[in-house]
Amino acid sequence: MLRGSESIYEMQATLLKTLASPRRLELIHYLGEAGPTEVWKLAEHFDMPQPAVSQHLAALRGVGLVDSVRDGREVRYQLADPEIVAACGLMRQVLIRRMTRLGDMAASYASQDLEPAAAVQAGR
Q1: Are 60 and 28 in contact (CB under 8 A)?
Q2: Residue 71's beta-bridge partner residues?
Q3: In a shared domain, residues 112 and 51
Q4: Handedness of CA 50, 53, 59, 63 (dihedral sign)
Q5: Between 118 and 1, whose confidence is greater?
Q6: What is the 8-class DSSP label of residue 21?
Q7: What is the pTM of this model?
Q8: Does residue 12 sit in the same domain as residue 55?
Q9: Half-sphere exposure of residue 29, counting CA atoms within 13 Å on the CB side?
Q10: Euclidean distance between the first and final Cα of the chain, in Å?
Q11: The predicted structure's pLDDT at residue 124
Q12: What is the CATH number of the domain that holds 51?
């Protein structure tokens, strides 16, 4: 039998698997900025076939990140919870800090590696 905390972790893992697509992350950020948008406009903006955009939106809708709202004949897609943009932004900041640390480490190692090479070239 699953404990409550295990089921929330499973739900979170499913949601994160759905977000593991660069295009879906772009859709999330775009919808966060633009607000409710029709599929054809999203397809045009991202230069993608409309069926491909619809598949991404269906996946996002399946985990509750996107809602569809009918307006006459048009269906607009919007974020179910705008805070998902903040959550994705927070993860992006974590990644940027990590990349900065790795870049600093790489620069440190590169400068250490250059010194012996320069010494060899100088005939030392």
Answers
A1: yes
A2: 74
A3: no
A4: negative
A5: 118
A6: S
A7: 0.76
A8: yes
A9: 14
A10: 70
A11: 52
A12: 1.10.10.10
Whether residues 29 and 17 share a domain: the answer is yes
56: CB partners within 8 A, 6+ apart = 21, 23, 24, 27
Assign 42 a pLDDT band (cuts: 50, 70, 90).
very high
Please report which confidence band the pLDDT of residue 106 belongs to, taking 50, 70 and 90 as the band edges: confident
Please state whether beta strands 37-38 and 74-79 pair in parallel, antiparallel, or not at all (unpaired). antiparallel
Closest of 87, 43, 46 to residue 63, by C-alpha:
87
The pLDDT of residue 37 is 96
The two three-digit tokens of residue 49, written as one number: 């076939």
> How many structural domains compose the chain?
2
- Sequence-distant (6+) residues with CB within 8 A of 43 are 49, 50, 52, 53
**What is the residue range of 72's domain?**
7-81
Exposed, middle or buried, 84 (CB in 10 Å: 0-12/13-18/19+)?
Answer: buried
CA 102 from chain centre, in angstroms, equals 20
